[in-house]
Every structure is written in structure tokens, then in C-alpha cells.
Amino acid sequence: MFKTLFRGGEILPVVSSGQWGGQAFETYKRTQTTDLLYMAGGGILAHPMGPKAGVNALQQAWEGAVKGLSIEETASNHKEFAASVKKFSK
């Protein structure tokens, strides 16, 4: 789901509902920005290696997306993100 919030006349995109790091790649491709709210509570708290790894996996995913890497390339470089891919991808 893609929503917007208004703050001081600016629009801040809000991405929520079932988010995990794997969606960062398409989100970045479409928005070309990291200036957004990316609400991935389940993607963090349900991470198989625990919430700290969930946060790390999310950061790794966004880093890979911004660098233009694929999900597979990013997963091969980061064990936390790889665990997310295994659990959350369809």
C-alpha cells in the first residue's frame, strides 16, 4: 500500500502493510528516493534471526536497492537479508 502524508506543504510517501526488505528494490526503482516512511514492523519483528537482524536486513536491502543490486546479489552478500528472502519471498 502506498500512502502520502502532508507535512508543511510537502508530501512524504508512506509505504506500509506487509513490508519487508524485498520490496525495497521495486519501491526504490519507482520512487528514486529514500526520503519516505517504510513501515516494516512484521518484516523486522518476524525475522527468523530476531528483530535486530530484521533491522539489519532492512538496511541491507535498501543499501542494495540504492546501489542497483538485485535481490539475489544483495542476499548473497548479507546473511540477515538472505534469511529474510528465505522467509518472506513467495
Account of the protein in words:
It is a single chain. The chain is of the alpha+beta class. It has one domain. The protein is built from five helices and three strands; from the N terminus they run E-E-H-E-H-H-H-H. It has a three-stranded mixed beta sheet with strand order 1-2-3, with no helix packed on it. Strand 1 and strand 2 form a beta hairpin. Helix 3 crosses helix 4. The protein is globular, with a radius of gyration of 13 Å. The relative contact order is 0.18. This is RuBisCO large subunit C-terminal-like domain-containing protein. It comes from Thalassobellus suaedae.
Structure characteristics:
90 residues, 3 strands, three-stranded mixed β-sheet, globular, RuBisCO large subunit C-terminal-like domain-containing protein, RuBisCO_lsu_C, single chain, RuBisCO_lsu_C_sf
Give a short synopsis of this structure.
This protein is α+β, with helices and mostly antiparallel strands and 90 residues long. The protein has helices at 24-31, 41-45, 51-67, 71-77, 79-88, and strands at residues 2-7, 10-15, 37-38.
Order of helices and strands: EEHEHHHH
> What is the C-alpha radius of gyration, as a whole number of Å?
13 Å
Tally of helical runs = 5
Total number of domains: 1
Number of strands: 3
Major sheet summary line: 3 strands, mixed
* Unreliable runs: none
Name the overall outline: globular
Tell me the helix content.
40-55%
What topology emerges from the helices and strands here?
Elements: E1 2-7, E2 10-15, H1 24-31, E3 37-38, H2 41-45, H3 51-67, H4 71-77, H5 79-88
Parallel strand pairs: 2-3
Antiparallel strand pairs: 1-2
